[in-house]
Amino acid sequence: MKPKKNPKSDVSRNSSLYFAVGLALMLGITYMAINYKTYDKTDVIADTLNLDDELDEEVPITEQIVTPPPPPPPPPPAPEIIEVVEDEVEVEETVIESTEVEMETEIVEVEEVIVDEVEEDIEVPFSVIENVAVFPGCEKEKTNAAKKKCMNDKVNRFIGKKFNTDLAGDLGLPPGRKRIFVQFKVDKSGNITNVVARGPHPGLEREAKRVIGQLPKMQPGKQRGKAVVMPFSIPIVFQVQD
C-alpha cells in the first residue's frame, strides 16, 4: 500500500535545526531583557546657573586687641651721701729746672773717651791658613806644607800611644774596624779647646776627648801676621779583634 503523504512535507525531519534556532533566539531576547535599563525623568535637573548673581558673604566682625603700654621704670635710687674729708697730707711739688744755659755760663770740656777695641776670634781653616800652628818638634820645618804634614804625623803618633784600643772589647762592641771622628781648635794662645768626638759608642767618644785634651800646647797659627783660631779634625781608626 502506498503512503498518502508527500515525503517532502514531513516536518519532523528538521526538528533539531529548528530547536537550535529557537533556543538561540530565546537566549538573545533573554539577555537583552536582563540588561535593559530605564531612568526616571524627574531625577534630571534642567536648571541653569546664573553667574551674574552676587554672592553675599558675611564678614565676621573682629575686635582689635590693644596692648597696654609697659609700666614706667622705677625711679633711680637716691645717691649716697658723700662725706668730703679734707686732705691734710701736703704733697711736695716736683720742680723741674730749666736746662737752658745762659751765655755767660762756662762750658766744661769733656775729655776724649778712649774706646777699647775688642778683637774677635777669627777662625781660619787648617787647609788655607798662612802659618799653621806648630806642634812641638816641628819648628825645624821650613815651609808651611811641611809643618802641616809634621803636625798630622805628630798628632797621629800621640793618639796611637795614648788611646786605649782595648776599651772596645770591654764595651762589648763587635769585632771589626772602628772609626771615631774628632775635631778640636787651637786657640790664639796655642791651647787645645772645643774638643768634639763622634763615634760608634759614647765610651769611645769619651776616650777620644780624653786623649785629645792631653795634646801639648802649640805655637798658635797666624793669618796676615796675627794669631788666629785654627780648627783641626782627624779620624781615629783602629781594629777590634775577635
Keywords, separated by commas or semicolons:
single chain; alpha+beta; 3-stranded antiparallel β-sheet; two-stranded antiparallel ribbon; 5 strands
Compact description:
The protein has four helices and five strands. By secondary structure, it is α+β, with helices and mostly antiparallel strands.
Describe the secondary structure blueprint for this structure.
Layout: H1 15-35, H2 144-162, H3 167-170, E1 176-186, E2 192-198, H4 202-213, E3 222-223, E4 226-227, E5 230-240
Antiparallel strand pairs: 1-2, 1-5, 3-4
Largest sheet features: 3 strands, antiparallel
Let me know the number of strands.
Answer: 5
* CATH architecture label of one domain: 2-Layer Sandwich
Shape: flat
- Helix-residue proportion: 10-25%
Characterize the structure shown.
- By secondary structure, the chain is of the alpha+beta class.
- It has a domain at 144-240: 2-Layer Sandwich (TolA/TonB C-terminal domain).
- It has four helices and five strands; from the N terminus they run αααββαβββ.
- The chain has helices spanning 15-35, 144-162, 167-170, 202-213; strands spanning 176-186, 192-198, 222-223, 226-227, 230-240.
- The strands form two sheets. It has a three-stranded antiparallel β-sheet with strand order 2-1-5, covered by helices on one side. It has a two-stranded antiparallel sheet with strand order 3-4.
- The chain is flat, with a radius of gyration of 67 Å.
